[in-house]
Write a structure and sequence with these properties.
Low-confidence stretches: 189-196, 228-237
Order of helices and strands: EHEHEHEHEHHEEHHEEEHHEHEEHEEHEE
Bound molecules: adenosine-5'-triphosphate, magnesium ion
CATH architecture of the largest domain: 2-Layer Sandwich
Largest sheet: 5 strands, parallel
Number of strands: 17
CATH superfamily of the largest domain: GAF domain
Helix content: 40-55%
Structural class: alpha/beta
CATH topology of the largest domain: Beta-Lactamase
Mean pLDDT: 85
Shape: rod-shaped
Number of domains: 4
Radius of gyration: 43 Å
Number of helices: 13
CATH class of the largest domain: Alpha Beta
Strand content: 15-25%
Length: 555
């Protein structure tokens, strides 16, 4: 705002204009630039052409009355209404009242007008009008801010929320740039602060990005204000600091940069408030003096941004829960149909064997007797195995499976399991075990490893109905152990290969070989718990090679 105010005197009497000019120019508190008009037409034209802060208007002009002048001025639709002080004659209070009704700010009686009265009246009128202008601008901004807040809150997902926030705030604050940073989203960011484990990632920005980021500046701001309880902000004292701050920093070119910065706090009303990120408005030079009401608006919008982010997080959590529920329901119904189907065959065999033994047991020789008992035992074991597998799967599905790694003696472990499996083999099969490299220093979970090896071996045996060699090869290097289970069995059709890790999934070439399609899903989950990977290579009718690679120690 200029220190010199411009005043238009609209009066047809040159002497009077001279007097007012003299009075005003001698005001010790304010400097003026005076414009003069001897007629209404000239006066109105001047208002259009030049910037005026106020008009001193004679109530009777040659071409128009003062009241008509006021009406004409209104018609001009100036960007901001001009304060008018009406000069009336003695005893013309009626006109004065009418003038005030039509929008004049004040009136003065021409006769015996004292300099200090004129000075004070003009000063007051202009000051009031300036205040009014400021107030309307603040009001307008508040309304805009409310609309922006609404649009932020109505945005559906995180991406849209931050995009709306930065774009709208940059326009509202008329600044160079508005940026949203997220904390802790990118652990690989090399600009992190080691001590605070503080990671800032630029999520979204609006405006010119010519100016450099000031990540270090923001990081130290956060560290200074929120340590030692960074991340989880506790107590009201720390929360009270969560107001917008203005930071002025020098960049390398020695120019000053003004940042307006506020932490975005989720759950702000509760004790467990969490810093989600930072909202930063940026002006490339220090010419910008952030005004109190702008800082206030910035604070309010940061709060709306936080609420919108929180809502979108809750929404995606709810969606995830319902997705998991859907999957669980699908799992349960699949379970019921598979279990009833898989149980029917062994149960029928058990029933048949038990009935035969009961009804004709006395007529059967010892060998037949033993054969029927063996059927009952085998089928009951098969059913027990099904139940065990289902219980394991249920644990993984509900996220209840535990990983408890311990230093592990792999050679003994592999040898024992391979020996157990050898006992179940027919003469047509051969099972060999080979070890190479350094397998020492491995930490693993025995139960999970057993699941992996037993399932892979049982598949290799089961899907080699014509026999052949089954080879287990255990290898080790400095960081990993790797093992293969290789068979010469029926192989896997290429089109089935990718889906076999899904629950209840079986290849099209299994024929009458029994199975529920759970083993590989269990193996995969156990490998993942160890932080490892597995691959399957196979060719139909040639054989299958499963490779498992596990880190020696999960960091
Ligand atoms: P379960 O292991 O639950 O008793 P399953 O053996 O059918 O039943 P998975 O171990 O998950 O289930 O294997 C899924 C499918 O992958 C099998 O049905 C089979 O089609 C195929 N498969 C797995 N291993 C082999 C293999 N070594 N050779 C050929 N096919 C295999
Ligand atoms: Mg299996």
């Amino acid at each position: 705002m200029s220190n010199v105010w411009t005043l238009l005197i609209a009066d047809d009497c040159a002497e009077d204009r001279e007097v007012y000019r003299e009075y005003l120019l001698s005001d010790p508190h304010q400097s003026y630039q005076i414009l003069e008009a001897a007629s209404a037409e000239l006066g109105l034209a001047l208002c259009q052409k030049k910037h005026c802060d106020a008009i001193l208007l004679d109530f009777r002009l040659p071409d128009m009355s003062g009241l008509e002048f006021l009406d004409e001025l209104k018609q001009q639709k100036l960007p901001v209404p001009l304060p008018v002080i009406m000069l009336t004659g003695q005893g013309d209070e009626r006109i004065a009242v009418q003038a005030m009704k039509r929008g004049a700010q004040d009136y003065l009686v021409k006769q015996h007008l004292q300099p200090d009265v004129l000075q004070l009246t003009v000063r007051n009128a202009i000051q009031q009008s300036h205040l009014q202008k400021q107030f309307s601008k603040i009001q307008e901004r508040q309304q805009l801010a409310a609309a922006v807040a609404l649009r932020i809150r109505q945005s559906q997902n995180l991406e849209k929320i931050v995009q709306t926030a930065v774009t709208e705030m940059q326009q509202l604050l008329e600044c160079d740039r508005v940026v949203v940073y997220q904390i802790g989203a990118n652990p690989d960011d090399n600009r992190s602060s080691e001590s605070a484990k503080l990671y800032l990632t630029k999520l979204c920005e609006a405006g010119s990005s010519s100016s450099a980021d000031a990540i270090e500046l923001f990081t130290s701001f956060l560290r200074d204000n929120y340590q030692p309880s960074f991340g989880e902000v506790e107590g009201a004292t720390t929360l009270a600091k969560a107001k917008a701050s203005i930071i002025v920093a020098r960049n390398r070119k020695k120019t000053q940069q003004a940042y307006l910065l506020v932490p975005v706090l989720l759950n702000n009303q509760e004790k467990s408030a969490r810093i989600w990120g930072l909202l930063v408005a940026h002006q490339g030079s220090n010419q910008r003096q952030w005004r109190t009401e702008e800082v206030e608006i910035f604070n309010q919008l940061a709060e709306h941004l936080a609420v919108a982010i929180q809502q979108s997080e809750q929404l995606s959590q709810a969606l995830m829960v319902s997705e998991t529920e859907k999957q669980l329901n699908a799992f349960k119904s699949q379970l019921v149909s598979t279990v009833s189907h898989e149980y029917r065959t062994p149960l029928a065999s058990i029933l048949m064997a038990a009935t035969t033994l009961k009804q004709h047991g006395d007529k059967l020789d010892e060998t037949k007797h033993q054969q029927f008992l063996q059927i009952i035992e085998d089928k009951a074991r098969q059913m027990a195995q099904l139940i065990d597998d289902l219980l394991v799967i249920e644990k993984f599905e509900l996220g209840k499976a535990k990983f408890r790694p311990l230093p592990f003696e792999l050679l003994q472990f592999f040898s024992d399991i391979i020996e157990q499996q050898r006992q179940t083999l027919s003469d047509r099969h051969e099972l060999t075990f080979k070890i190479t490299g350094n397998t020492k220093g491995f930490w693993g979970d025995g139960q999970l490893l057993r699941q992996i090896l037993v399932n892979l071996l049982s598949n290799a045996i089961k899907y080699s109905p014509n026999g052949g060699n089954i080879e287990v090869h255990l290898m080790g290097n400095d960081s990993h152990i790797i093992f293969n289970v290789i068979d010469q069995g029926i192989g896997i059709p290429i089109e089935d290969k990718d889906r076999l890790f899904q629950l209840f999934s079986r290849a099209s070439n299994v024929g009458s070989i029994s199975g529920m399609g759970l083993g590989l899903a269990i193996v995969k989950a156990c490998v993942q718990m160890h932080g490892g990977k597995m691959t399957v290579e196979s060719q139909e009718e040639q054989g299958t090679k499963v490779t498992v690679c596990l880190p020696k120690r999960l960091s």
